[in-house]
Amino acid sequence: MKKSIQRFILALLMVSILIGTLVCFSGCSRNKEMKGQYTYKTYMSSLGTNWNPHSWEVNADSLMLEYLSTPLVGVSVSNSKEGIYTWVFEMAESITDVTAQHRDDLAKYKASIPNAQSPDAIEKGYVFEIKLNKNAKWQNGEAITADDYIYSMKALLDPKMKNYRANLYYSEESAIAGARNYYEGKTSDFSSVGLYKADDYTIRYVTQNPIDYNYFLNACTSNWLVYEKLYEQGKRDAGGVIVTNYGTSAETTMSYGPYKLSSIQTAKQAVFEQNPNWYGYESKDGKLISYTNFDIDGSKRRQYQTTKIIIDVMDEQSAKNAFLRGELSEWSPSADELSVYSSSDRLYKNTETYTMSLFFNTNKDVLRRLDAQSNKNSIVLSNKKFRQAISLAINRSKFVGATSGYVPEYALLNKLYFYDIYNDPKSSYRNSDTAMKGICKLYGVEYGEDKTHKTLTDAYNSISGYDENKAKSLMKQACDELVAAGLYKRGDAISIQIGWSKGALSADDNKQISLLNEFLNSAAAGSGFGKITLAAIGNIENRYAAVPAGEYAIGYGAWGGAAFYPFRNFQVYMDPDQYSINEAGCYDPKTETITLDVGGEKITKTWQNWSRSMTGAGEYADSDIETKLSILSQLECAFLETYYRIPLCSLTTSTMLSYQCDYYTEQYNIMYGFGGIRLLSYNYDDAQWAAYLKKQKNSLSYE
Q1: Helices (DSSP H) in 245-347: which residue ranges?
Q2: Using 50, 70 and 90 to split pLDDT, how confident is the model at 12?
Q3: Sign for the pseudo-dihedral over CA of 396, 397, 403, 407
Q4: Average pLDDT over residues 360-387
Q5: How many CB atoms lie within 10 A of CB 213?
Q6: Within the chain, what is the greatest distance between any pair of CA atoms?
Q7: What is the pTM of this model?
């Protein structure tokens, strides 16, 4: 059944329920309160614990922050049929490139000027004037002014706090001029940082390096605002580093978004309600309503119809049962359940930028210690051929069958990374000739008139990352090398713990680890290795830090995000000054070097310097697209060839949506998703939904 037909049927049902509601509930005060109320009920395995915009780390925190904040600039639907997006000015009324009028700021804040350019001739790309929304307020009704932005940035960059998110503003393509020196404590004068107040509702943002206007707007799709009084009250000294409890409870949170946090019970439930002081609402008949200040498909649309959001902590089975009783607005099916609902009109699927991988600690001293504690013969991971064999032994197509709809991956960046999206919406890095050639070379797949694969595209599309025959050969070679080196006794069993998840292991997790064991033992048969047993470990607070710290030899996790400038993405693997490197137990990217071919010239740099070369004032930051694509592809393939990290699959969100509500569009777009909570609409208010559920005896079918 098509969703449009389904909506027509739901509309008829709604009329029926409306009549029933008037008859059955006319005297009920509770249902009077529910009329015109629209509650979105969702769930998590664990709630966010730190939604401070300066220090949040995990997705659960990010989700909480999205409800409580509003960006300077947002992105939304413009034309849903054509997949066209629009920039939406939110906390900013406008953002203008005023570099030509404020060239003196470049010298004042010591911006980095390319050698070939004269500062006097620079016209754009450095100084951006942000006119602030004069109607913006904190949830307590206080006005938000330029002073709030300046205080918040100073706090974010405070060298005594070492805030996790500071790197977004002292490095990367939107770094503020002078911010790094302030963050590193080289100066205590914040007036040397290129963010300053022009008037009460205007700030100017001076970038360290030139940046395209669209990329600057993209950087403004997040915000750094914190409420000074609560932020300062929550500060304490934690062993020489100042921390704050801001954004860790309802009492320590001050919203400036469409919702406010009304209550949170640790490990149980979080409740968000409309923030009456959010600038986008107007009061009508005692209700808060909002309409877009931009056209969507030709007209203004209602936005933020949801009046309350409830997040409950639930396990998988409880969530499924609650969804089928009508008590949840969404539910994510497990691997087994996904096949049952694959043809449902209420199933929405989209691939995310995050690529799940196995990552390693190959330090022999660490592996020996772990072998004496929790593992057995994990020393085999120090052998590159053994790790390569692991990669080629994994049938990714079969592996994702034990996930909730993930898609196989054999490279670090998936198809959602775009190298020129603002000029070419189809400029997927993964589909570029340069990237495809690199991966074909990595996996040894040839193409040509006299080959099995006639074209580059055909060759690339044939790659699965799975080659059991080669994996078997590598296993035997690895075993011989390890035995010869006195590191392994032929035939001994191998048992290795994997730092798998922050929460408890799910049924899908157990199936995935079972498949990995199956793949590895099949490839190792006859190689000289004994039985291989990988054991997934859950309830790990931070497995990404635990592996390089030597607590586990293998971790399982993902990197993603920043999809519109892939040329800086490898800093997460190679730049320990900017990121906590998951593979820090394998190599030192600050000292180890690699040679790449740039325009026919062989150039050697450290891994760290290559990862920085196309960002900020990097040597190739202003190079043409083809040059940067070539460097990116070579760097990706070179890192994959170390087998310090083995990509397996990309996360895919598979969500069943309740009959109570609808996304704005059924066609996923990386710029605006399905329209998000902003454009979510309802077929029933809470009173009508309660009546409908009663009529259905609280048992719904979505197959």
Answers
A1: 316-324, 335-341
A2: very low
A3: positive
A4: 98
A5: 14
A6: 85
A7: 0.81
